[in-house]
């Protein structure tokens, strides 16, 4: 036996002498990664030189890339050259300071290196033993952010709840919805799943309907309650009660409400407290989707948007939107971890170990859809420590201040109107209806304005339609945006409008 | 108006003169990221100095970390020191060459810098316009890997199908299951969801049952068909047919089969072709979960494990397991993208644009659960180009060769037995039943052997139970593992066994 081992060792030694394939040679790693750092730092330095909205046509890449992968290795320099020449022209530059579309996806040096460290370990933290630090740091960081948001103890591990990092709001909603669904089905029987009804408003994120369908909620039982301009498109508790009562009268079972703090179209805010009153009367699980608006609530002056949160069941917030973490990072807190675990836990033999079986530790695989998961909390931990709470609050305030600047500029031009009140760093505005033109033409003009501004590549904004009104969305908050970018964007909008109006009356 | 603008610009200039908070200052980014690169390269260099299985106790981190986040910034050096002192001791080092647990999660310099580039852009590629390059490169890379696997045209964009990067197998199964479910419900009516039946074996990944429950399949309709040692724990097509026939006789509707190429416990292989025969007779959607084993099929000599794939509906494979991509990277191909899109598409006003509305482009948000998504394909693209197909095949072969070495070492010791035939790079073995001891004691001895070996911190293996037999899993494949690590692991196992046996007969 000893001789067999020594044979293998001799063989192994001779193998090691030949030039072996080592994709994680530390020195090669060092060289490539340093090169990548400089490439990226230079990209950030020069980002304003690129058109913010990509100007390529569909299919542009097919002709630039071989149809099959190479048999032999290609150098990193060659690949970086291709990234520069073939990929960058096809990028819509989300990190450009001239990006005012959708909601920004914010970033920071701290989160970048946090993700490098997460990759460094490449730990698969499905349960505690597979990566104790990954599990425990996530618990700490979720409690930290809960403290910053002044969430009650019932949402913290230091209390009776807890938090988990999901990839997206969709997953956060899915996991909580499944928990609520299974609790209800236990009572009414799985054959009555067709009785379960879920509630959102017509402003709730489009993913809500998708997620409800995934969870097997019958499509005709997904209520999209209408909102109106007069209520700033927030969900009316009165109307919710009416809809719920009608469902109950029909023998249906109210299940789940998704309330939003900062809707995607216009950052409308649903009144959590009053909605929770209604929900409590019917044992409805209330989830608050604060993907965008939640981040602002780390500032005491915006915290009131979360008033009533102590009465809801779960809350999600995406730091990748406004807390500088890069994609993807969605925080979910719940008062009822056990209900989520009841629905999502698995217990295969090959993952069993004494410590996990003792129930003394968290197994994050039971808090999410998948089994595998990265060491997700490092990014958020790095952000919170590298900048500190004070800077993060000021970062939110500065963004909002820039939006205020833009709002004032819009108001200073009588051709424009602000369509809904600005709550955070999104301004919803449009060209007013001009004398002698109808509303369809107004919409057309606004569309033209948007197309022309975006096609310059100097600014990227988007649009939405609410209450039948087509409006332009100007979302401030890209990490590199400063006052002068906002002012220059306004100047471009104004000049484009001058030209449009001239054509109009020509 | 002009004066308002110039007022703002003056204000802005004076703001810029004060020391502003700039979390993406390119030079600060450069400095931090270079520091992180060296930290990580040094970690890889010294990784063998750490115990592979973390030796901390539950709760170890709470006492090392403040209860609340800091108000003021902390330096990157301070944080890196804490990573070294507080995080690393709590890591189970998945990238250690002495990690033989679960399945390895493999990595490479190329994938690391690929992810750095993905983060660089931080593009949210929910639809084409939001990031044309992210959409198109993903299509190219999915076709590339399909070519490497000799998948038929029906799974490629260049044919009539297509592929998408998911995070985990769970998501891949969920998306295809929902597509199959909704197609069926359209025919039988949503009120008959309780009739839908899904099939796997008792070796199918534990996430399958979880995902089926998420999708609203009634728990009593999830069939876990037993397998036996004599069939190497592969799913018997005959037995499948019997179970399906019984369901049909009861008026139930067979829906979905999850077949596995390389099960988690023992890398068993379900016979795709023969299972597809049965499925075809009942219009069952067949999904092949080749999360681990699929990667080996890039080698012509292992491709036969996918024989029959041309007859299934979808296939998933996780390059983060064996193709060096870091977490998370799960490839899903399907012949029926439209069915997935039918179930998962959303069309909110704020994401509409002319190009997307023209249907000429792919909107990857409609191929997944969430809306947002990273530029996921860069990592895989970097791996395929940086190493080339030839090296990747040899990397698979080298890992398998090391497993063969280990298998021979086990066989050379009469106290041990190989429990199931080795297919890839996982060896399933155990201490045999010794004279005078019963099977319960044999299990206890094997457990003790595992505990003692793992507690040394020199090696980490795991266990499973199949067909009532407790066995040890030795999974070769961590990126840094070489022959001498395998031989040393065996030596440790052998010596530990010597001591155990001595105690036994003492």
From TrEMBL, chains A, B:
<dbReference type="InterPro" id="IPR015421">
    <property type="entry name" value="PyrdxlP-dep_Trfase_major"/>
</dbReference>
<dbReference type="Pfam" id="PF00282">
    <property type="entry name" value="Pyridoxal_deC"/>
</dbReference>
<protein>
    <recommendedName>
        <fullName>Tryptophan decarboxylase</fullName>
    </recommendedName>
</protein>
<keyword id="KW-0456">Lyase</keyword>
<dbReference type="InterPro" id="IPR002129">
    <property type="entry name" value="PyrdxlP-dep_de-COase"/>
</dbReference>
<dbReference type="GO" id="GO:0019752">
    <property type="term" value="P:carboxylic acid metabolic process"/>
</dbReference>
<feature type="modified residue" description="N6-(pyridoxal phosphate)lysine">
    <location>
        <position position="321"/>
    </location>
</feature>
<keyword id="KW-0210">Decarboxylase</keyword>
<dbReference type="GO" id="GO:0006520">
    <property type="term" value="P:amino acid metabolic process"/>
</dbReference>
<keyword id="KW-0663">Pyridoxal phosphate</keyword>
<dbReference type="GO" id="GO:0005737">
    <property type="term" value="C:cytoplasm"/>
</dbReference>
<dbReference type="InterPro" id="IPR015424">
    <property type="entry name" value="PyrdxlP-dep_Trfase"/>
</dbReference>
<dbReference type="InterPro" id="IPR021115">
    <property type="entry name" value="Pyridoxal-P_BS"/>
</dbReference>
<dbReference type="GO" id="GO:0036469">
    <property type="term" value="F:L-tryptophan decarboxylase activity"/>
</dbReference>
<dbReference type="InterPro" id="IPR015422">
    <property type="entry name" value="PyrdxlP-dep_Trfase_small"/>
</dbReference>
<dbReference type="GO" id="GO:0030170">
    <property type="term" value="F:pyridoxal phosphate binding"/>
</dbReference>
<comment type="similarity">
    <text>Belongs to the group II decarboxylase family.</text>
</comment>
<dbReference type="InterPro" id="IPR010977">
    <property type="entry name" value="Aromatic_deC"/>
</dbReference>
